[in-house]
Design goal:
7-stranded antiparallel beta sheet, 20 strands, 31% helix, alpha/beta, binds zinc ion
Length: 740
């Protein structure tokens, strides 16, 4: 499913950005990432229609169901609010600190969690949530956790659902409570304190916020109390102005992600302004990222912070382009005379140079903030490309000078602990970044190419990825049936689709729901993509012969109840999976097939006998990921008969139904799309179907029977999503082209 035909021209720049009157920059700056492949669309996009930034939402364009933000995630980007990083800037529009999507918000639209989702009847009562980074859980009820309907059958210690790290204040330890300090300062009396505590508890607000909103203390007094409580210095942003060296070190992207304002920078010591005293972990993360000796925080009021933020970064938004310009300017001294004779020392020196470090840091942060899945660093003969992939589409960043190719590759290798002297062989490594307490795991792969080393980084955010089967976008009736299947005591349940269709997310969401203390779940994966507490997870390692088949064989000796095999690739794995199912286990796995019925024939082609398929396969869920229409620029339109025909629809069939497309706006980088969702088709094994399978029926015969007995096809699921205004006809045509 290649989404980037390289010959596709870049879409024209947003006309709204061409006259950047308010922008003082003399040099035309490249706008942020440009979508490399224009979405192939037959929808009637009015030519040249400038998307209105911040256009009001069309009436009725409520946020798509299935895409709510998880609890604890940062505020969703508001339509009309400043665009995400990398998008071309709205002149003069500053970005409020709070509006930045936080790394780790779930990527696929379908993967968002539902707090307090009901448990299926019959499911065991002890829910175990995916593990957010952070402290070990304490037993006990957690707000927002689904409550078991009945008391636990055993007095086993309940496993607590952990709260997302986000909103959780760090324990204050032995520090005095803020309320006590306010009383001690004579700002409030005890009666007021009790009332405030009450409000804070019921509203979930911080005590200080309550005090300010009640007019009992002002922001300055609160800062004084908080500073005393946390032993932080108080800042005065009227006197402490951001120094150029500090602004150079901490870009706006970095500052907004870490929620700091850089003030001074000297002798590897940086001082920053912060608002939230609980933000000290971020200060620490920043010190690590920048490799500094110390970062000194100064506590300031929210109002002062916002004002200073606007001033400090006014006109500095497109910092990646500026940085590259700067690199180009001093390119003459940095350029190597002979690329092939680079010695280790100069390579090390280049990799460690401040501009290169800053460039890489900035690219990483922008990619994380935009919830990219991969970052590509690619040397070509004439130039060097940096791109990252969001929602399956690559976006290009302003290209750095070509002579930096070695320095960039080396810098990434240093960060990933790879051998920078080895430039002739591919290497794999990882980088871990912590941003505001969230861990981001980066898998680095380098590959020697004709024109230098290419590096591709896969971003795995393990902390907040929420795996909730209710949020995958599966149709309610289909979901109910799928739930029955995964709750069976034994058998094989398969999820199929091409690479990148979200199979793993679906299976993990299923396992997450089944994850109870009374049952043992073992998984074997290549690689382990999500870490879930309570699961025993084995990575595949081909080099030492730890294949799926080998792992599965050993897993069976570990007394599992439920097993996940990352993928069934060969007969051997299929046979062991079947054997496991026949001996009383429920086995989940994935296969690369286009639809549910062809999965049966695919297993047969692998060499698995029909009677074994009949004996153990309980169901097959085929799925695809399609892009969701950007709700900020969604418009209704009436497709012509030709367009309908592409989906085998007639005007009569769609009478009264609605169709939508995204016009393109700042929020969605003018693609008309934002986020992705799944479409599904579920095959459930029946006696009739088994009969047909034992007769070695063809895929077509199997599909006919399935449809006749009520299977909702991928195409059906897609058309359904179109009418709900979630996706476009183009997306469904492309993803369900093999059908019919
Ligand atoms: Zn849009």
């Amino acid at each position: 499913m290649s989404t980037t035909p390289p010959e596709n021209p870049k879409p024209a720049q947003n006309p709204a950005n061409t006259g950047q009157g308010a922008n003082p920059a003399a040099v035309p700056r490249p706008a942020g990432p440009t979508p490399v492949s224009a979405p192939a669309t037959t929808a009637p996009k009015p030519a040249g229609a400038a998307p209105a930034p911040g256009a009001p939402r069309p009436a009725g364009a409520a946020p798509a169901p299935g895409a709510p933000k998880p609890a604890g995630a940062a505020p969703a980007p508001v339509p009309g609010a400043p665009r995400p990083a990398g998008a071309a800037p709205v002149p003069g529009a500053p970005r409020p600190a709070g509006a930045t999507p936080v790394p780790g918000a779930p990527r696929p639209a379908g993967a968002a969690p539902v707090p307090g989702a009901p448990r299926p009847a019959g499911a065991a009562p002890v829910p175990v949530a995916p593990r957010p980074a952070g402290p070990t859980p304490v037993s006990g009820p957690v707000p927002g956790a689904p409550k078991p309907a009945a008391p636990a059958p055993k007095p086993a210690a309940p496993i607590a659902v952990k709260k997302p790290v986000e909103a959780k204040p760090k324990p204050t330890g032995g520090r005095p409570k803020i309320g006590e300090i306010l009383v001690g300062l004579g700002l409030i009396d005890e009666q007021q304190l009790f009332e405030m505590l009450d409000e804070a508890r019921s509203s979930g607000k911080k005590l200080g916020t309550v005090a300010v909103s009640r007019g009992l203390v002002n922001e300055d007094q609160l800062v004084k109390a908080l500073a005393e409580q946390c032993n932080i210095k108080i800042g005065n942003l009227n006197e402490q102005k951001s120094q150029p060296e500090a602004l150079l070190l901490v870009s706006e992207t970095m500052a907004s992600m870490y929620k700091v304002i850089p003030l001074t920078f000297k002798d590897k010591i940086l001082s920053v302004a912060i608002v939230d005293p609980n933000n000290l972990t971020s200060v620490d993360d920043l010190r690590n990222l920048l490799g500094l000796n110390e970062v000194i925080p100064y506590l300031v009021t929210p109002t002062a912070f916002e004002e200073a933020q606007k001033k400090s970064f006014a006109g500095k938004e497109d910092s990646i382009a500026d940085l590259i310009q700067e690199l180009e300017a001093d390119g003459t001294k940095g350029r190597r005379k002979n690329e092939t004779s680079i010695d280790l020392e100069s390579l090390m020196e280049q990799a460690d140079s401040a501009p290169v470090r800053r460039l890489i840091n900035m690219v990483f942060l922008m990619a994380i903030r935009d919830q990219a899945s991969d970052i590509h660093f690619e040397p070509f003969e004439e130039d060097y490309k940096m791109r990252y992939k969001c929602d399956g589409v690559l976006f290009e960043l302003p290209p750095p000078p070509k002579y930096l190719a070695n320095a960039i590759a080396s810098r990434i290798k240093v960060m990933a602990n790879l051998d920078i002297a080895e430039r002739r062989l591919p290497q794999d490594g990882r980088i871990e970044l912590t941003i505001g307490g969230n861990r981001v795991d980066m898998r680095v792969s380098t590959l020697p190419t004709l024109f230098g080393e290419s590096a591709v980084i896969r971003l795995l955010d393990k902390s907040v990825v929420a795996l909730d089967i209710n949020k995958l976008g599966i149709d309610a009736t289909v979901l109910a049936t799928f739930r029955e299947l995964i709750n069976k005591p034994n058998g094989v349940v398969l999820v199929t689709g091409p690479t990148g269709s979200g199979k793993t997310t679906t299976l993990y969401s299923a396992l997450n729901e089944l994850n109870v203390i009374e049952e043992k779940i073992i998984t074997t994966e290549d690689p382990v993509e999500y870490e879930i507490e309570g699961l025993v997870q084995c990575p595949i390692n081909h080099e030492v012969g730890m294949t799926f088949a080998a792992a599965l064989r050993s897993i069976l000796r570990q007394d599992p109840d439920k097993i996940l095999v990352g993928e069934i690739r060969d007969l051997e794995t299929a046979q062991i999976a079947v054997q496991a199912a026949l001996t009383g286990h429920i086995v989940f796995s994935t296969l690369h097939t286009n639809d549910a019925p062809s999965t049966i024939t695919r297993m047969r082609d692998m060499g698995l006998q029909s009677y074994l398929i009949n004996a153990c396969v309980e169901g097959v869920l085929a799925q695809r990921l399609v892009r969701k229409i950007c709700i900020n620029c969604r418009e209704e339109f009436q497709p012509g008969p030709d367009q309908l025909l592409e989906l085998n629809l007639t005007p009569e069939m769609v009478a009264g139904k609605k169709f939508f497309y995204g016009k393109g706006c700042d929020t969605c980088n003018n693609t008309g799309y934002k986020g992705r969702m799944g479409i599904h088709e579920l095959l459930v094994m029946t006696d009739e179907l088994r009969d047909l399978i034992s007769k070695e029926a063809s895929t077509d015969e199997l599909r006919d029977l399935c449809v006749k007995s009520g299977m909702k096809t991928l195409r059906w699921s897609g058309v359904n999503a179109i009418h709900q205004g979630l996706t476009t006809m183009e997306e469904i045509i492309r993803e369900t082209v093999t059908e019919e």
